[in-house]
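Hi support team,

I've been running sequence recovery on a batch of backbones for a student project. Most finish fine, but this one hangs at about 90% for roughly twenty minutes before it completes. I'm not sure whether the input is malformed or the queue is just slow. I've pasted the structure tokens below so you can try to reproduce it. Let me know if you need the job ID as well.

Thanks,
M.K.
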């Protein structure tokens, strides 16, 4: 593949558990059923004990059994990848303050039910998110605004977000529009090396993808072009045709 280069990297990594004050083990489990969402429960981050396998995504195969996220999507609004990407694009130019926080993505995550779950998992407190790296908060916020957060997932830690996609059989190698893309700037293929996350806008057909990302450049939401060798894998929300 040639010598790797670090190009256009964001100025800081994903939100790690060290930032929040402690390190904990992540346990496995199954995604919540649709009825649980209606009752106010929240989708668990189901990290496997072993390395996440690289799966071939077959979500469009009509003969394949429905995945847990496809079942959940039956109770959600019908949203296309283009509609979600439009929400993401509208945020281009939003930037953090001089402390590395202060965005609406931070405020939303800190006020969401999810923050209590990630604090229970990782330790720390709500205020610890105020100036934390926010690439995954951006992805989660966009999913919420588009109305399909239960199949986009929500977290502030990129590794467990990637593991959640894999555990729910929505993880693979294809840069589909609207896919959630996870990066390792060193070009590794382990989810534990993930540095950053964003959305795929399109595959450029030349070894690169166009993306929309938060917490990139100098702490902005921007459209970027990334080489595919930096991609660990893709998570696939459920979109309407």
């Amino acid at each position: 593949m040639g010598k790797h280069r670090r190009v256009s990297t964001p100025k800081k990594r994903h939100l790690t558990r060290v930032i929040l004050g402690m390190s904990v083990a992540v346990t496995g489990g199954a995604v919540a059923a649709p009825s649980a969402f209606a009752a106010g429960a929240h989708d668990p981050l189901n990290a496997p004990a072993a390395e996440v396998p690289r799966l071939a995504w077959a979500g469009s195969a009509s003969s394949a059994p429905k995945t847990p996220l496809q079942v959940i999507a039956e109770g959600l609004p019908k949203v296309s990848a283009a509609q979600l990407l439009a929400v993401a694009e509208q945020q281009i130019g939003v930037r953090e303050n001089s402390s590395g926080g202060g965005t609406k993505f931070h405020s939303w995550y800190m006020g969401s039910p999810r923050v209590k779950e990630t604090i229970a998992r990782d330790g720390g407190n709500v205020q610890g998110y105020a100036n934390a790296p926010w690439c995954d908060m951006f992805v989660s916020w966009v999913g919420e605004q588009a109305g399909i957060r239960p199949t986009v997932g929500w977290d502030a830690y990129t590794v467990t977000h990637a593991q959640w996609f894999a555990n729910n059989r929505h993880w693979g190698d294809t840069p589909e529009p609207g896919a959630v893309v996870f990066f390792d700037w060193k070009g590794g293929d382990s989810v534990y090396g993930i540095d950053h996350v964003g959305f795929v806008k399109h595959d450029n057909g030349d070894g690169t993808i166009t993306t929309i990302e938060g917490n990139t450049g100098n702490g902005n939401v921007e459209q970027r072009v990334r080489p595919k060798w930096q991609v660990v894998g893709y998570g696939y929300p459920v979109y309407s045709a």
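--
Follow-up from support: It reproduced on our side and the slowdown came from queue contention, not your input. Residues 1-56 have pLDDT under 50 and may be disordered. No action needed from you.
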